[in-house]
Amino acid sequence: MLESVKDRVIIGPAFGLVHNSVFEGDVVGMTKEVVEAMGLPRKLEHTVASYHEMRKRGMRVVVGGDYGFTITPMGQNARDIGHFVKFFGYSPAGALKCATEVGGDLMGLKGELGIIKEGALADILLVNGDPLADQSILVGPGNFDLIMKDGKMHKDWRRPDMRSELITQLY
Q1: pTM (2 decimals)?
Q2: CA-to-CA distance for 138 and 81, rounded, in angstroms?
Q3: Which pLDDT tens digit goes with each residue over 90-121?
Q4: Domain boundary among 81, 110, 139
């Protein structure tokens, strides 16, 4: 059924909340028994299987989800890119596309946001490492060497005049 509208529908798994509850619930006091009683391991298993199928069928899936809770704090959203690789079978480049290009399309900015080309909005994040090899470098500002938003430089670790401000913000 979804395949018939795959060019018009974008799906978001909101996977972080279930993932963190199952694998990191103890951090917020969720015992293994509580996680089991809530059926979360089974939900995780079914979610993984469903999104594998959606990927295989060419459905557009966007990275994003329920962040801003104790178990899924703000600033950790980029972990979902790694989850797309590890759990849903995306290539690292495919997962990044789900976070950028598909996200831009979802916001009605297809061809303007989530891509690098002349005339696009020029939101660029330069990280200290290779996100295709290690998606975790996209989590947290410590690995962000440069941030450009709408073509304007906001943070550039390489510029001495911005370094002291960045150090203050990071620590």
Answers
A1: 0.84
A2: 9
A3: 999 999 999 988 988 888 888 777 777 777 77
A4: 110
